[in-house]
Amino acid sequence: MRIQGETAAGIFDSIRDQVQARVIEPGQALPPVRELAVALGVNRNTVAAAYKRLVSAGIAITQGRHGTSIRPAQGPGEQEGSLPGSPLTDLASGNPATAWLPDMARVCRAVAAVPRLYGEPTLNADLADSARAWLDDDPPAGYALDLCHGAVDAVERLLAAWLAPGDKVAVEDPCFLGSLNTLRHVGLVPVGVPVDEEGLRPEALVDSLAQGVRAVICTPRAHNPTGASFSPARAKALRRVLADFPQALLIEDDHFGPLSATPYRSLIAPATAHWALVRTLSKCHGPDLRLAVVASDAETSRRLRLRLAPGNVWVSHVLQDMAHVLLSSPEDSRRVGEAREDYAQRRRTLADALRAQGIASWSRGDGLNVWVPLPVAGRDVAERLARLGWLVRVADSFCVDTPVQAIRVTVAELAPARAARFARDLRACLDALQAAA
């Protein structure tokens, strides 16, 4: 490493060039500010400004008293979804049941073949009407409405609208994989806020906000992976916390939406300056539809629209037409209601089967998954379950700051008889591991 430069810009360019040439490797520590300033014969503020620019550009990360280092190489991270070709019964995917997804051929036949050109409004008028009805009165009055390419895309764009690389973002711990991967990809720092069966723990949220967190991403109901949903008392307590930090961007990811058996309880307080409610069609109408509705305050919407301009990047009008057909169809509303009841029953069935085997789970929640805390390492349990034909997701993938021993079990297509067998097999695995300990 041979850093040169007499100005902040010159030092920045020298380090960036060496990173790109792999002379300075990912994860490598940069010299302390004072030491490099002496070596270059410049003021410490000059070096500090160069380092700050490296962090803002996503090239470096700050580690407090441990100094500044080049950002470690990031892979794509573990992803949600099924494992094609696996001989195991897949209880790890997080996917909805295909039987409850709509007949897209029927939807396509109902779409009017109207060509759109560059410069058209980014939001179809018909979809705007059906989306507002779909959102009901959940967002605060006077909200602005926008579209994104799914919930993960919406969260990334919202964060980019307000934050810079290196900023801290409070997330649930354990956390949805898509949110974790997004934060790491764009150079933001996740700060884990532990959850229990009622959602985020208020005292932990206070601690994270006191650390200088600039945004909070939360799931009001059907939290993935745990299924936790805000109780009325918990939502009230969390709103009081956020009211003391009105400048923190609040993003509510209501990914399960109308499939949820739990009421939507928002944390958006009157004092909250910037907020967004993201509701996606992925779980109720299929992940491949790639569309999420975003309700937000006016300034957040203005910034979001700069990144979704006509003729630049917008959600396909054909997809919007399809979404309008689905959201305005009584037949599809009935299907979603039946799916809601089915998923809730499958969660109850597995929770009851586990309880019969003396295994506790987070059964008060909602969603497609059941969270099962364990007395032993989750990976050891997952390996033994795989030998018995089951594929589950281990808690390690979702943890931010605090390691947790647990597995996530997707129940969307788990029949009652197989739920009972899975519970028996899990009991056998736990007994064998505890006996060997």
From TrEMBL:
Xref: InterPro entries: Aminotransferase_I/II_large, HTH_trans_reg/aminotransferase, PyrdxlP-dep_Trfase, PyrdxlP-dep_Trfase_major, Tscrpt_reg_HTH_GntR, WH-like_DNA-bd_sf, WH_DNA-bd_sf
GO molecular function, one term: DNA-binding transcription factor activity
Region (Disordered): 66-89
Pfam families in alphabetical order: Aminotran_1_2 (PF00155), GntR (PF00392)
Top-level taxon of origin: Bacteria
Keywords: DNA-binding, Pyridoxal phosphate, Transcription, Transcription regulation
The UniProt record lists the keyword rRNA processing: no
Signal sequence coordinates: none
Residue stretches making up the HTH gntR-type domain: 5-73
Family named by the database record: In the C-terminal section; belongs to the class-I pyridoxal-phosphate-dependent aminotransferase family.
Protein name per the record: Predicted transcriptional regulator of pyridoxine metabolism
Organism: Orrella dioscoreae
Lineage of the species this protein comes from: Bacteria, Pseudomonadati, Pseudomonadota, Betaproteobacteria, Burkholderiales
